[in-house]
Amino acid sequence: MQPSDNPRTHPPRTRKSLSHDLMIQASWQRCNKYGLDQETTPADAIVSQGEVRDLQYHHNFLINTTGSEVLPYYENILANSSCLIMLADQKGQVLNCWGDRRFMAIQKRRCFDDGARWSEKVNGTNAIGTALATGQAVQVQRDEHYLKANRFMIGSAAPIYDTNRELLGVLDVSSDAYLPQAHTLGMVRMMSQSVENRLIISKFGQEEFLLTFNTNVDNLDSQWAGLIAFNENGTIISANRRAEMLLRFELALASVEEVFGIRLFELKNQPEGQPVLVNALGKYKMYAMVKRPENPMALAPDYRDRLPVQTETYAGPTLEQLALGDMRIERCTRMAKAVTGKEMPLLIQGETGTGKKTFARAFHHASQRSAFPMITVNCAVIPEDEIEAELFGYQNPDKGSVGLIRKAHKGTFYIEEPAELPMSAQTRLLRVLEEKKVTCPDTGQNWSVDIRIIAASKTSLKAQVTTGQLREDLYYRISGLNLELPPLRERTDQIALIHHLHRSCKESSQPEYLSEEVLSLLTRPAWPGNTRQLLNVLQIALAMAGDDEIEAWHLPDDVLTEPANRDLSTGMTDKTVITETQTPARISTITETPYLSADQETNPALLQQANQLQHSIADETLKAYTLHKGNISRTAQALGISRNTLYKRLKELGIRS
Ligand SMILES: Nc1ncnc2c1ncn2[C@@H]1O[C@H](COP(=O)(O)OP(=O)(O)OP(=O)(O)O)[C@@H](O)[C@H]1O
């Protein structure tokens, strides 16, 4: 059907229902208010490839969940009818499409590409935009579209709500009108309900109880059954829309015991798959079925209390911010981004200080695991006899920690130098990765763990397999996506990195600018520092420069002269001598200050700044040393330095000879 020639001021009346007509009328009024022109072609609805990728990346979980719920409908019901299923976000931007576009003219197809905007503001009255504007399912007939360009099709759309009932997006089926349209709207509603149910199950099924209920025992497995998630204490923490419709009751934070008139203990111990007849709210006869958490950890709340909850907000660089122009790093970030939504392990290799852990953190925070912790362990610094307990926990959990692996549950487990693990621990780690369980060897008790492993190493793990230091099967388990980070000296984006590091550690009152002279000193090939050392140098220079611009003489002498035996990671030279140590909490005298040239030493302000820096390193070292009761490995780990560096610092502090 051709669009009418003259713009109309009102939508056509249909015989569908009064409320439908009112909905369309209200939408047209909104479009008039937005100043839309019915003759417009919504060309500005198209966005760049980069924006599309970011959008899809952000909504990865919704896209995957929708795909798995929608495709069976498409394959079984819609495959032979020419139609397009679209998933859009809460702003109406298309995230993904399934189906085919043959029903539309070739020149129109771009408007249905990923990233296209179907909000009412851009595309006038249309199923996606109007469902979003009203929060309701809607079918928009051909002539009901506000823009003439869209009047060749019929769209049916239903909103999708997240587990907190926030509008998350919308699902739409569009075709050129030859589908049985009443069915299509029903089907879209059903698909969106399936997606919502799947979101609840994915979010809560692992650790909380799920309860499905319905009026009839035969349709407990339908999308239209009520679905509730409740916690250990019987508090309802999520419910699908259907649950509230069936009970006509707001369920958020209600007690499952009170709602269903059954004791919590009985409900939790109901045999799985066996429906129970309940009298909901004292008036509705319903059949209910309980599914216990997949993860038994949820059954031990006291235990769970000890697991860390991620509260920090991530302030480090994102994957995008890591790519500053070096081709090799850009390739790594691109490949990593492609697998954030997948369960693939990562293996990051590169010299010390190349930014492996920084990369892993950026990756973790870009992944769907970001709400959970990233736990890190460096196998090279933990004594052999302690490593198993550190990783897998103590046999008697009351004695101590649940172990680092369980702490990473649902998050990321970053393991440095896995080849340093004793063979027995390698075997246990392999078993954990294969079975997704941590098992207590004595009692046989086990705990499910869902972790993404990121392994990191300064040397080639493959070579360590050859020398027999690393189990080959463990290597293959952990080497999913292999990334090699280039050392600083080979990076082509050194200047951009220096600016980035400088910005990230300078005070707001300090100048943004770095002079050509400073930049060329820090990038000259003769200076062999790695990224960690570069950061240290900048921190020292900033401390020296105060509120002034960094000048060449603010840089440590070593950057200029490169003496041997300099350990920039500690900020001390071999010449540094701290002669007098007081109690472990305080150092009072530093006789020789590194990094100051002769004329700088005459400047009392600079001397004081340098002293302060030395004091803070010494204080930090001593605090950690005292806290870990003199345990070298643990202190070194807490400070993020090698055991050798720690020994050196302690020697300089006069604590060890
Ligand atoms: N791109 C970056 N942006 C900001 N800081 C960075 C970046 N790359 C590295 N750093 C900083 O450099 C230091 C070393 O980085 P990181 O610990 O990630 O390196 P690593 O390769 O894991 O080191 P190691 O092998 O010695 O454990 C850290 O202080 C980190 O904050």
TrEMBL record:
Keyword terms, alphabetized: ATP-binding, DNA-binding, Nucleotide-binding, Transcription, Transcription regulation
Residues in Sigma-54 factor interaction domain copies: 322-543
Superkingdom field: Bacteria
Keyword DNA-binding applies: yes
Molecular function GO terms recorded: ATP binding; DNA binding
GO biological process terms, semicolon-separated: regulation of DNA-templated transcription
Keyword Transcription belongs to the record: yes
Protein name, as recorded: Sigma-54-dependent Fis family transcriptional regulator
Species for this entry: Oceanospirillum sediminis
